Amino acid sequence: MVWSTGKLLQNGRYTLQAVIGQGRFGITYLAETRDKNRLVIKTPNDEALNRADFERLQRVFVKEAFKLAKCKHPHIVQAYEPFQEEGVWCIPMEYIDGVTLVRLKQKVLPEAEALPYIQQIGEALREVHRNGFLHGDVRPANIMVRAGRAEAVLIDFGFAREFDHDLTVTRTKELATGFAPIELYSRQAERGPYTDVYSLAATLYILLTGEKPTSAADRGAYNAQLIAPKKHNLLISDAVNKAILRGLKLKGEDRPQSVEEWLVNLGVKAEQSPITVDPSSKPLVPGRQWDWHLFWAAVAAIGALLAVVPSFLGAMNNRHHSPQAFPSPSTPNAPELLRNHR
Q1: How many beta carbons lie within 10 A of that of residue 286, not counting itself?
Q2: What is the pLDDT of residues 322-332, one digit of tens each?
Q3: What are the residue boundaries of the structural domains of the chain, listed by start?
C-alpha cells in the first residue's frame, strides 16, 4: 500500500511529500510537519504487507525504532516516536539533507578526505556495539554526507540485529555485494563487532579505489583472490593498505575484534568515550518527548498478536542468550557456506 503524495498522517501532523526510497520490506517517504520541518517516515512496503508473517515483521519493524532510539550519536540518524496509521507502523526519522557516499561526484577519494568519514562511522558503530547491537549492513549506500559539511551519518538500521540473535534467514542477493563478511552468508555462523569491521573496511576500499572488493562468498567458496587496494591506487599508503586487508580477513577471528582496534590499525584515533546527543536538545517529536510507556505498550500489543503463531513461539522458546554477550568468531567452510545459501 503505497501512500500518495499529499496524504496526511496522524490527523495532519505529517504530510507526505514524496517516496524517496524502497528496500526489501520497507518504503521511505519524505514528509513535512505542520511547522514545515522536513523528516523521513519509514513504513513496511507492499511486499511486507502481503506476507503471511506480516505481524512478525511489524514487531521487528518497531524494534528497529527502539534500537535507533538507544543509539544516540551525532553520526547516527535520529529516530522519533513511532506511530500507527491505518494499521501500519511508521517510524519518523531525522531528515538528512545531503547525498550517500555512493552519489558523491568524486568516485575515488584521497585518504585525507575518506579517512574522516570512516572515523565518524567507526565512532557511530562503537555506540551501536556498546548497546549490544550489530548494524550488519554498513556500506556506502547506507552512509549519508550532510550537505555543505564533511560529516557522515549512518542510516538504515532495518538489518540491525543483536549479537546473539540466531539468524534464521540469510539474504544472498543482498549480501553478495562485496561489503558483507562470510559469517552473514550462514545461518549458523557467529557474529560480533568484527562483522561490522569487515563492512567498514570494504567501504573504505571502494572509497579509495572506486572498485568493490572481491565478495566473501566467492573467496570462501571458490578461493577467489582479494586484490590489495594499493594495486588499484598506488597513492594509498602502506599503513592504510595493510589495515584494509586486515579488516577484510575472511575469518572473523583474524580481523580486529573491535572498531577501536581497527581504527588504531588504520592510524585514526578513536574517541575514548562514546559521543552522545543530549536528548533535551532536540525532542523526538516537535514539542514532545518519547512516551516510553506507550512505546512498550505498543510492542506488547504486537507481541500479543504473535502469540497465536506456533512457529514464532517455538523460535522464541529456544532463545535464551544475553544481548551483551559477544560470541567468539567462527566461519563455516565452503561446502557448508553454499548449503546455507538462500
Answers
A1: 13
A2: 333 333 344 33
A3: 1-95, 98-275+327-339
